[in-house]
Write a structure and sequence with these properties.
single chain; alpha/beta; Rossmann fold; 8 strands
């Protein structure tokens, strides 16, 4: 499965870039899935729903299915967070998986960068960052795209992964 990451510090524009890339790349006829890393507790369920009650009762997994979507919730219950490779193996086959976050993993990435938060560039110290999408001009030893030039960024990623 082809994977490409979007990395960057908080408020760098990662989620907006991933959202635009999914729309752009699927609009070109490719299938895309995403994996998003969260540093905080995440719950996609709501208190009082049947599925939440199943989890609260101790279920390890709850599969919720409807005519529109399927959601599989797995409780770690103290087990370590699964590695990225394990998470990727759970996905159905697609043309491309875009990964948001997972800075320390070794897959190829583009860094989303905004000057205003004042964070350092990741690209200068990480050889897995192949390009930077920035809101300000930068001189680097890798391609630099305008953060809002979604088509050019998509072109770059698709070429990188051979699509």
């Amino acid at each position: 499965m082809r994977v490409y990451g979007v990395t960057g510090w908080k408020n760098a524009g990662k989620t907006g870039l991933v959202e635009r890339l999914v729309a752009e790349i699927t609009g070109r006829g490719y299938t895309v899935s995403t994996v998003k890393h969260a540093h905080h507790s995440v719950d996609v369920d709501h208190p009082g729903t049947d599925s939440q009650r199943h989890r609260a009762a101790g279920a390890s997994e709850v599969l919720l299915a409807s005519g529109q979507r399927i959601a599989l919730m797995q409780e770690l219950r103290g087990a370590p967070e699964p590695k990225l490779d394990t998470l990727l193996s759970r996905l159905s086959p697609v043309d491309l998986v875009l990964i948001e976050g997972f800075k320390r993993e070794r897959h190829p990435k583009i860094e989303a960068f905004r000057a205003e938060p004042g964070n350092p560039l990741i690209a200068t110290d990480d050889d897995t960052v192949r390009a930077v999408a920035s809101d300000t001009p930068l001189e680097l030893d890798c391609p630099v795209f305008d953060l809002d030039d979604t088509a050019a960024i998509a072109d770059f990623i698709l070429e990188e992964v051979g699509l």
